[in-house]
Design goal:
- It comes from Shuttleworthella satelles DSM 14600.
- InterPro entries: SAM-dependent_MTases_sf.
- One of its GO terms (biological process) is methylation.
- The chain is an alpha/beta fold.
- The protein folds into two domains: 197 residues, Rossmann fold (3-Layer(aba) Sandwich); 66 residues, Single Sheet (N-terminal domain of TfIIb).
- The chain has nine helices and eleven strands.
- It has a seven-stranded mixed beta sheet, with helices on both faces.
- Strand 4, helix 5 and strand 5 form a beta-alpha-beta unit.
- The longest helix has 19 residues.
């Protein structure tokens, strides 16, 4: 089974400890450092849209790209519920104007856009799923092609230190909508991390995950059904489905990534520790790479297009 098919149904609930708000603040800080305070921005590997929604709410005209139809379906359902909720708000002051997000089902190794972007980013390990230098270079070249003159690309990579720390660990978690067992294995020689994901998913997990995510992003309290489930009230016998996925990711040496950035035609700007936003060290768990488009600066034929609405 491909990555993020069955896992998509329970992804948001089990990844509720991911610091999306902090990551958004980091992205905003870097984009604003380069004068990108609004305009078209694309996210590669957007998943269920958690970061895409946050960046849209911060004033950017967002496009989310992911190859998983299951993840994108949840992202789109969350957007629809959010838009309907705002339209039905009794107090107009509660409404905030957020542009509708365009979601595209594409592989980042061959993505296509309608025009160039002020900024592009990829976070939450998305680039670690590129298993060869050729794939990484391909994505970097595509990004370079779709950036405005002077546009900025930000992407994170999980470090080798983080994968070594994970090692051959087994992680298990059980929630109201299902359970999973994660068996991890890291091959240091090949810099390849492999994990088997065994899942037991409640039949209505997808619907509950969307409701929970929308409530969380809007600041609402926990849903009524979830409260009853947590309290053990009103429970019915429900079917659970067993699913299995295999995930393979790779880490890259920092120096090699910098070389590939330059080979793609982008200008390497800096690499940061994603936790401290300072200099990297041998203990850094996640890197932020920042690259900039430079080749189009003198071109008269390059234009940024706003999508039709």
């Amino acid at each position: 089974m491909a990555c993020y098919e069955s896992f998509a149904e329970i992804y948001d609930r089990f990844m509720d400890d991911v610091p999306y708000d902090r990551w958004r603040d980091h992205l905003l800080s870097i984009f604003k450092e380069y004068g990108i305070r609004s305009g078209l921005v694309a996210e590669l590997g957007c998943g269920t849209g958690n970061m895409t929604e946050r960046m849209a709410a911060s004033g950017y005209d967002m496009t989310g790209i992911d190859r998983s139809t299951d993840m994108l379906q949840i992202a789109q359902e969350k957007q629809i519920r959010r838009l309907l909720s705002r339209e039905s708000a009794a107090d107009s002051e509660e409404k905030t104007e957020t542009a509708q997000i365009l979601y595209l089902c594409q592989d980042m190794r061959s993505f296509e856009l309608y025009g160039t972007m002020a900024g592009i980013y990829a976070v939450c390990d998305a680039m670690n799923y590129l298993l060869t230098e050729e794939d990484l270079l391909t994505v970097l070249r595509l990004v370079n092609n779709y950036l405005d003159p002077g546009g900025v690309f930000i992407f994170d990579l999980v470090s080798e230190a983080a994968y070594r720390k994970m090692g051959e660990r087994t992680i298990a978690d059980c929630r109201d909508i299902g359970a999973f067992i994660w068996q991890n294995e890291f091959d240091e020689a090949r810099r390849i991390n492999h994990y088997d994901l065994e899942m037991f998913i409640r039949e209505d997990a997808g619907e509950l995950a969307v409701e929970s995510s929308v409530e969380s992003s809007s600041g609402k309290e926990q849903g009524t059904e979830e409260k009853r489930d947590a309290a053990g009230e009103g429970r019915e016998e429900r079917a659970y489905f067993r699913r299995h996925e295999e995930h393979v990711t790779r880490t890259y040496p920092v120096d090699r990534v910098i070389c590939l950035i330059k080979e793609s035609g982008l200008a390497f700007e800096k690499v940061l520790d994603a936790e401290t936003m300072g200099e990297i060290s041998d203990r850094t768990q996640r890197y932020y790479f920042v690259a900039r488009e430079i080749a189009k600066a003198g071109s008269k034929n390059t234009a940024s297009f706003r999508r039709w609405k």
